[in-house]
Every structure is written in C-alpha cells, then in structure tokens.
Amino acid sequence: MTTTEKINKPVKKEREGKLQSSRFWVQIAFTILCIWIGIEFYYFLRFFETGGLEGSFSRPPGVEGFLPISSMMSVYYFAITGDLHQAHPAGFFIFLGIVSLSFLLGKSFCSWICPVGFISEAIGDFGDAISMKLFKRKISIPKFLDYPLRSIKYLLLAFFVYAIFMSMSAAALKAFLDSPYNVISDVKMYYFFADISQFAFTVIAVLFILSVVIRNFWCRYLCPYGALLGIMSIISPLKIKRDAEKCTSCSLCTKACPNRIVVEKVNYVLSDECSSCMKCVDACPVRDTLYLQQVVTGRRVKKKYVTPLVLGSFFFFITLGIITGNWQNKITKEEYEVYIEMKNSLGHPTGLESDEHRELIEQRNKDAKDAVGK
Ligand code: SF4
Ligand code: SF4
C-alpha cells in the first residue's frame, strides 16, 4: 500500500484520546469568546450610531486580537522606543501571547485557539467526509503545486516584515499608530464585514468553497499570521518525537495528521505546517512511541500538561496586560464620536518613510485631536 493510500484511509474515532476532547472544548470556548466580543462590539457601535440611545460605551479590548498588523507595529514600536502605544494595548499583549505560545508549542494557536482555524478544521472534516463518500479518498493538492502555494503566505509575511521592520522609523510608526485610521481600525474592520461589498463576499465565498475541497486552504496557503507562527514553531524547543525502536510503522499517525505530515518516517516533526494538534500522538497505539519532547533536555512532556501549557502561555501576557493597567485603551468617547463620523474618509496612511509626507500625516493627526479638544 502506498503512503498516499494509507493517508486516505479514515482514522477510527476511538483512537482519539483525551487530548482531542480538551482541544475541542478549548476551541469551542475561544469561539464563544469571539462571538461574545463581536456582540459586545456591536453594542459599542450601536451607542455611536444611535447617539447614545442604544448600546453602551463599553468596548471589548479582545477585539484587538483581530488587528495583527497594528499589534505587530505596536510591538516593534515598543522594542525601539520602550513606549507602549495606547491605541490598541490589548492587541500588543495578545500578539505577544500568540507569538510566545508558538515559540513554546509550535503553531498550537492555529489548532487550539484561532476561531478561523477551528472553522477551517470543521469545513475540512466536512469536505473529507464528502470526498470519502464520493471518491473513497481524500482530495489533496499534488506536491508540485502544494509547495509553491505554501510559499504565498511567506511572501505576504515578507511584504509586511519589509514594510514595517525594514522601512519604518520610530517616527513613522508613531505617525501610523496615532492616526485616526489606526485608532478606529477595529471599527473599520467591523463595517467591512457588516456592510460587505459584493467583491469581498465573493472572495470569502470562494475561499470557503476551496476550503471544503482542499483542507485548510486559507491557513495552509494564504494566512501570513500562520507563516509567522510556522517560523516560530521551527525554533520551538518542544517537538513531537517518534521512537523509531518502538514504532511498528502502522501509519496511524500519518493518517491522523490533518496537515499531511508523514509522521511515521521522521524522528522529530520539524515541519512548519505542524499545528501541534496532537492528533498523531493520540492516534499512536504503541505506548511511549510518539510524544512531545523537550529537545534540549530530552525530557518527555506528558499529554496532561499540553492543555495547561497552551492556555498558560497564551494567557500569561494577557494577564500581564490586565494587571499592569494596559488592557483597556485610553481613547475617549469624544474621540470615537469624531473618528467614527469621519470613518469613510479615513484612508490607510502611506508614504510615512518620507519626512515630508509623514509631517503631513502628523499634522492631520494633530488636527483630528484638536477636533476632539485633546
Ligand atoms: S504532526 Fe501531529 S501534531 Fe503536527 S499537525 Fe500533524 S497530527 Fe497534528
Ligand atoms: S509512531 Fe505510532 S502511529 Fe506512527 S507509525 Fe509508529 S507506531 Fe504507528
């Protein structure tokens, strides 16, 4: 039997151990949290839409978790100036939480916490079930196409890294972070989806359909955040280890892997696509053969510690943000009133590397602050 044929055989549910059920409940909990953040943000915006008659001036800071580019800029600004920018401080801590989690436990954010990863996984399971029924095999992109497609997300990441880390000075970063565009980027994102254009809707629908046919299409090929976490996972000291002496080459680990990693052939899983979902570990029927290992000390990490490790490292920085009083932003109601009113005329500030252009943006930022008397 070829490896591809082996991969296409379904894995029996009963082989999924306890870790898969805790991963599922963690995914559910974070999805509910995101829905709750969305509902609270809706009422926050109703407050401004109705002149304070409905909703409330209570903005959920967690919404900043959906602003990774602004958060990355904020982290870089902090690294070069020591100043924590106050437009989206929660985004700063969430970004650090996600990156540190990826350093510790690979791309576990994607398979444990990210609601897009959760939806993508559910769509992929649905797509696999259909293709197994129709074609008796799972559909996957051939390798000669898979590798170039996987590089798209790295190209997108390289673009952001170049645009931020290689091109922006501290003054340029500050001008961007201070801009009303950045301050209400969460509001703009909300209206992007609430008043979605036909073009954007079509793109999302195409991505959805592609994700049914090709598992994890968005995450595997397009998500630049996943690319960053994939790089962090390569340097992570915790890796999945296969004990070749005990391995019976049953292929159950390879069949269980949603990211098409041929686990049965490696001593350590070193792939940037590994999302630390632990499905392979749960699937392995031979005791102490496939496990998480600290590669420096060679110590094994027991399954029962994986869930606390994921949650602990993600919430460490969030707790730090809360206890240091840097969780809620310091944007006033008056600022939101003026900026939300201006939202359709606020464009992405560009050309901040040029002194002349940056001074223009700084003047605009000042005018916007003067308009709210700040
Ligand atoms: S190698 Fe194991 S932990 Fe990594 S993605 Fe595949 S199944 Fe999940
Ligand atoms: S590591 Fe475990 S599941 Fe994978 S081939 Fe070996 S025995 Fe089978």
Describe the structure.
The protein is mainly alpha-helical. The protein has one domain. It has 18 helices and three strands. It has a three-stranded antiparallel beta sheet, with no helix packed on it. Helix 3 (68-81) packs across helix 8 (170-178) and helix 4 (89-105) packs across helix 13 (224-234). The radius of gyration is 23 Å and the shape is globular. It starts with a helix and ends with a helix. Residues 1-16 have low confidence and may be disordered. It binds iron/sulfur cluster (2 copies).
In summary, what is this structure?
The chain has helices at 3-8, 18-49, 68-81, 89-105, 108-113, 115-135, 143-166, 170-178, 180-183, 185-194, 198-213, 217-222, 224-234, 252-256, 279-283, 306-323, 333-342, 355-371; strands at 238-242, 290-294, 300-301. The protein has 374 residues and is mainly α. Helix 3 crosses helix 8, helix 4 (89-105) crosses helix 13 and helix 6 (115-135) packs across helix 11.
Topology record:
Elements: H1 3-8, H2 18-49, H3 68-81, H4 89-105, H5 108-113, H6 115-135, H7 143-166, H8 170-178, H9 180-183, H10 185-194, H11 198-213, H12 217-222, H13 224-234, E1 238-242, H14 252-256, H15 279-283, E2 290-294, E3 300-301, H16 306-323, H17 333-342, H18 355-371
Antiparallel strand pairs: 1-2, 2-3
Helix pairs in contact: 3-4, 3-8, 4-13, 4-16, 6-11, 7-13, 8-18
The structure holds iron/sulfur cluster (SF4) (2 copies).
One iron/sulfur cluster binds near residues 240, 256, 261, 269 and 280.
